[in-house]
Amino acid sequence: MRNLILFLCFFLSTLISFAQAPISLESAEIADRIFDEAHKPKVSGQLLNYDAEKDKDLFIKYVQVQLGPEMQVTHMAEINSDGSFELQLENGLPYQQLWFSIGEYYYAEILANTDLIIKANLDKLRGKDINWIAEGVEFSGNDAAVNRYVNKYISFRNERVKDLQMEEQQLSMNREMELAEKIARRREINEEYVKIEAKFIEKEGSAYAWLLENERLSEFYGQISIMHFGKEMDQSLLDEVFTHHPALVSNAGHAYYNYMGMMLQAFKTDEFLKKIENFPSVKASLIKMMAQPEDLYRRKAFLEKVLPGMEDGWVKTQMQNTYEADIKHIVKIEESLKNTPPEEGKSNLGINKINFGEDTRLYFSTSENTTDLIQNIRGAFEGKAIILDVWATWCGPCISDMKQSKQIKADLKNLPVEVVYLCVADGSSEEKWKKKVAELELKGNHIFLNRKLSGELMSHFKFQGYPSYAFIDKEGKVYLDYISGISRIDLEDLKKKL
Fold first, then answer.
1. 376-411: pLDDT as tens digits
2. For residues 249 and 63, what is the distance between their CA atoms, to the nearest angstrom?
3. Fewest CB within a 10 Å sphere: which of 133, 186, 219, 400?
4. Contact predicate 33/92, CB 8 Å
5. Are residues 486 and 387 in contact, defined by beta-carbon separation less than 8 angstroms?
6. CA distance 455 to 428
7. pLDDT tens digits along 301-319
8. Apex CA 480: angle with CA 477 and CA 482, to 5°?
9. How far apart are CA 264 and CA 461, in angstroms?
10. What pTM was computed for the model?
11. What pLDDT is stored for residue 237 in this prediction?
């Protein structure tokens, strides 16, 4: 068995040697291309048989992976009257990963490196829900071949890796297994992925075998790093991790650097900077870039300590740009907090603390218990269904969904439904809550719950953590498993429920 694995590894590495490997994110060439307009990838497309009236609710969404504290950012592409569209990319980094969807019809991974044209025949997609490779979707341009290849591989791999992925999850959560045993088992899982790649390459060729290997190793070494959270990694293993250089701006590439930052406990900034002193220079810079806190105020403090000691280069330039943008944002938030007085009196929702414009209102709940809270919210929005979004100011998944839900929120304005944000006191404070709502620029009605009411709400609905959601229809019936995220609401299904 061991001989077979060694043969497959040799076979795969031989095939990869014939493929053209790209520059990595740690290559010196990145500095020449990241800010160069000529290197900025171009992704455009055409929806065939598009009818501006019939398809008025159709959308094109792309979730772009980026380098920095926020791994993904969601964009909506405008569909022109003739069905053409264009995705906007901001820099010249190579192989930028996008998660692309045409409404509910089609979903795929897109790699933007030079230029790509996507043609989609809506007559062949309407009423379907297809992932990766679809009849009626064609790629052309210089990036066509790599996009066909990776989507074929995802489809091929997904049929074979469910058990492996389940074991990976169980391995990461296992607190009883010794670290050395976990690492050894993760290596065995990696070898299983090698075999799957070899079978795919035998079928589809090796033109982009380097890409499959690079992504697999980014994920593998990222997981090895996170296993060492708060622990010191053996130097020989650390040297092995250092030999890898991610080539894609992808989920796996981001995780490689981010998990190394987590291993070094970047939230303890002074200790983190000492631990990273002897790391290779560019790798250390990218770890610092990915280790930036998502919280605006914590990120400002982190950058003020990290930036002065960094070598000049494109990574420092990007982080300096982030810092300057954060300073402007903080000034804007502070001005909003000063210059936006609350309304007089008290509403069903509680005491109005502050408002940001006409569409963002913040209340401190005065409800005695959860039953009163729900009755008061329903009373404030008679004739409407209610969606409760329960969150905390420190909750990454909560904030991520809020950022991704702005388009859905705009669509919900035309429906008899109201989203109400309930911020719990668990790890949050009224001041942090105000600043976070201002930072997110999240329109709607926001209610801060005191500690007693926060605990009672979680117990009442048997919520297990944050974010948690509840849908309350017009008659007051509560559904706890209907919504898993505001950004993931199925509008057509919601309309039926209303």
1. 898 888 889 999 999 999 888 898 888 888 888 888
2. 12
3. 133
4. yes
5. yes
6. 13
7. 999 999 998 988 999 999 9
8. 95
9. 37
10. 0.77
11. 92
